[in-house]
Design a protein that fits this description.
121 residues; mainly alpha; 2 domains; 4 helices; 92% helix; 0% strand
Length: 121
C-alpha cells in the first residue's frame, strides 16, 4: 500500500510541475513574439522602405501585447473559454464520472427514503 501512496504522490508532484510549466509557457509566447519582431526588423526595413525601423518596433511590440490581451479578453468574456475547458475536462475525467454515478445512487436512495417517509404519514 505504501508503494501506491508513493506513486500517487509522485504523480501529483509531476502534474503540479507540469501545470507550473504550462503557466510559464504562456509567457514564453510574448518573448517569442518580441524576438520575432526584432529578427524580422531588417526585412521590415527593406519592405516598408524605412530608414529607421526602431520606431516601428517600438509600436509593433506593444500592439502585439495589446492584441494578445484583447484576444484573451475575447476568449474569457465572450467565448467563456475557462468554463468550456473545465466542462470538457470534467466530461473526460473518470473520477468525475465515478463521483456523478455515486451522487446519482445517493439521490435515488434519498428519493426512496422520502417516499417511504411520505407513506408513513
Amino acid at each position: 500500500m505504501a508503494d501506491k501512496e508513493l506513486l500517487r504522490r509522485a504523480r501529483n508532484f509531476f502534474f503540479a510541475q507540469k501545470y507550473r510549466f504550462d503557466l510559464g509557457l504562456q509567457f514564453l509566447v510574448f518573448l517569442n513574439f518580441a524576438l520575432l519582431i526584432l529578427t524580422a526588423s531588417d526585412k521590415l526595413k527593406a519592405i516598408l522602405g524605412l530608414e529607421h525601423i526602431t520606431e516601428v518596433i517600438l509600436v509593433m511590440i506593444p500592439v502585439g501585447f495589446v492584441g494578445a490581451w484583447a484576444f484573451g479578453w475575447f476568449l474569457d468574456k465572450v467565448v467563456h473559454s475557462p468554463q468550456t475547458t473545465e466542462r470538457e475536462t470534467v466530461k473526460r475525467s473518470l473520477v468525475w464520472k465515478e463521483n456523478f454515478q455515486k451522487l446519482d445512487e445517493i439521490d435515488a436512495e434519498l428519493k426512496a427514503v422520502r417516499k417511504a417517509l411520505e407513506k408513513k404519514k
